[in-house]
Amino acid sequence: MAISDTKFDTATFGAGCFWCVEAIFQQLDGVISVTSGYAGGEFKNPTYEDVCSGGTGHAEVCQIIFDIKKITYEKLLEAFWLCHGPTIPNQHGTDIRT
User: Fold this and answer.
1) Which member of 27, 37, 58, 79 has the lowest number of beta carbons within 10 Å of its beta carbon?
2) Per the residue annotation, which of 17, 20, 52, 83 is the catalytic one?
3) Count of domains forming the chain
4) Side-chain half-sphere of 68: how many Cα atoms within 13 Å?
């Protein structure tokens, strides 16, 4: 298949600690890449230490590039809801912070 025949899309999820979430999405067939970063917040270009301080207002997020012929956005959402507890604010497993 030529690269021009492939359709990619992008999704960004904030589900707590991006390293934990990154590992889950990387295992899914059809996911091309997962990039960790930050969304929202008050600082431009924050460091990991800045965000961990709890004072920047950023959320850890993962941006996912995926092949729409191999995986749907709905399947990505299923994975998101399996790794994210929306009723527990500022916590992902034992990782507790804003």
Assistant:
1) 27
2) 17
3) 1
4) 8
* 17 has catalytic annotation: yes
Whether residue 75 lies inside any domain: the answer is: yes
Any idea what the CATH number is for the domain that residue 54 is in?
3.30.1060.10
Has residue 69 been placed in a domain? Answer: yes
For the record, the structure tokens of 61 come out as 């997020």
Under a CB-based contact definition with an 8 Å cutoff, are residues 57 and 46 in contact? no
Q: Residue 38 in contact with residue 46, Cβ under 8 Å?
A: yes
SS3 label, residue 39? strand
Q: Report residue 11's pLDDT band, with 50, 70 and 90 as the boundaries.
A: very high
The whole-model pTM stands at 0.77
Q: Is residue 92 part of a domain?
A: no
74: containing domain: 3-84
**Is 89 inside a domain boundary?**
no
